Amino acid sequence: MLSASIPGFPGVRYGYDQTEADFIADYHSAMSAAQPDPKGVSVLALSGGGPNGAFGAGLLVGWTQRGDRPEFRVVTGVSTGALAAPFAFLGPAYDDRLVRAYTKTHDSDIFIPHLARSFFRLLRVEALTDTSPLHQMLAKLVDQPLVDAVAAEHRRGRRLYVCTHEIVTGRAVFWNLSAIAASGRPESLALFRKVLVASAAVPIAFPPQHFEVETPAGRFRETHVDGGLSRQVFLHLNGARSALRSPPEGPLTPLTAYIIRNGRTRLDYDAITPTLVPIALRTIEALISSEGVGDLHRIHAQTVAEQAAYRLAVIPDSFDLRHEGMFEPTYMRRLFDLGRERMLSGIAWQDSPPMSGTPQARPGSTLAPVAPAPPAPAPRANDQ
Questions:
Q1: Residue partners of 186: CB distance under 8 A and separation at least 6
Q2: Is 341 exposed, middle or buried (0-12, 13-18, 19+ CB in 10 A)?
Q3: What is the largest CA-CA distance in the chain?
Q4: Pairing mode, if any, of strands 255-261 and 41-46?
Q5: Start-end of H helices in 306-364
Q6: 130 with 112: CB under 8 angstroms?
Q7: Which of 159, 192, 233, 379 has the least CB density, counted as fewest CB within 10 Å?
Q8: How does the average pLDDT of the chain come out, rounded?
Q9: 352 neighbors 297 (Cβ within 8 angstroms)
Q10: Are 359 and 268 in contact (CB under 8 A)?
């Protein structure tokens, strides 16, 4: 397959056109570059989840208030986790931006619906909404001083990655945002923001982001959408121990992988109308949930192999507040407060991935009655 890169930005992304080994080598450079820390090395992964990202934001702010939030050597993010990742990467000084983004946001701050358009005009647009409000919000939250701060941390050896999904090839692409920031190019701020929007571009709902890439065969246009189609959350820890051991025969440096799952780990039972749209939406919801749990188990297997500690935070099943709009401040504030309170009370983390369980009935839903099975027919004489 042809190798593709962003013009003027070599080596800032890995995916279908580069080997996984290249990505892991860059990832591991963060493990060995920074000065040894007697407390060990911490990495953080933030999942997708839309407005549920308020939970992770609350955890991070509560962690700051508790006074023991580590500096993460690597931070990764997908979808809403990608939007929060730069603030998590830069630390407590940027908590105020997490609060603004996840407790004061309305639908109108993210998108403008195209529902007023005619059906035939909808067939000619890329999505059901226009996300120009999201671009405007990011212009305020992700400014040049923030990108300069990320660049400075990259030069210290730390790394900030987010994931998008390229829809033509159907592959994940992992972007090194800290390398983009450190490139020194005048276009770095615009590319930094564009990648964040792409990682959160829910297909059909939000428009995709297009990137011009150059290859030995010429220039092409790629189409990127929400990274959650490929990964709900990601870390690459395979081989991390060898990168952390210096000298090679020296003692192992403690490694802790923190994963924030902006969602619950099992679906509610929720009776639906057996028509096309509810069935389609429920199918997508089930696929995303299953993929997310699988990612949590994949990361856990890596931590076991690398003798690392595994710390997972999830929205508890007891949280059952419903919301009408996609980004509803009351709902997001409740989730933010829940994350913050769980961190302050010391019950945020579990040390193993979730087990699959029976879906629980959502409050207000009615379990469909199951007709008893008919009795088996008595055997006939000639069947004996």
A1: none
A2: middle
A3: 88
A4: parallel
A5: 329-344
A6: yes
A7: 379
A8: 83
A9: no
A10: yes
Tell which residue, 281, 45, 9, 15, has the closest CA to residue 164: 15
Average pLDDT (276-301) is: 76
Contacts of 191 by beta carbon, 8 Å cutoff, 6+ apart: 6, 9, 180
Q: What pLDDT, on a 0 to 100 scale, did the predictor assign at position 198?
A: 96
Q: How far apart are CA 346 and CA 349, in angstroms?
A: 8
CA dihedral 179, 185, 189, 191 (to 10 degrees): -70
Q: Does residue 230 register a pLDDT over 70?
A: yes
8 Å CB contact between 344 and 337: no
Alpha helices in 200-308 (DSSP H): 240-244, 276-305
More confident residue, 72 or 322: 72
Predicted pLDDT of residue 368: 37
User: How many Cβ atoms sit within 10 Å of the Cβ of residue 7?
Assistant: 11
Q: Could you write out the DSSP letters of every residue in 97-142?
A: HHHHHHHS--GGGT-EE-TTS-HHHHTTSSSSEE-HHHHHHHHHHS
Residue 133, both tokens: 């409000």
Average pLDDT over residues 203-214: 89
Q: Give the Cα separation of 344 and 346 in Å (integer).
A: 6
Is 32 within 8 Å of 246 (Cβ atoms)? yes
User: pLDDT higher for 227 or 284?
Assistant: 227
Count of CA atoms in the C-beta half-sphere (13 A) of 171:
14
User: What integer pLDDT is reported at residue 376 of this predicted model?
Assistant: 47
Rounded distance, CA 338 to CA 44, Å?
19
Cα 374 to Cα 107, 231, 367, 369, 378: the distances in Å are 50, 44, 21, 15, 12
How many Å apart are CA 91 and CA 43, to the nearest integer?
Answer: 13
Tell me, rounded to whole angstroms, the distance of Cα 135 from its chain centroid.
Answer: 19
Is residue 313 within 8 Å of 336, Cβ to Cβ?
no
Structure tokens at 366: 């009615």
* Residue 250: CB atoms within 10 Å: 10
Note the pTM of the prediction, 2 decimals: 0.85
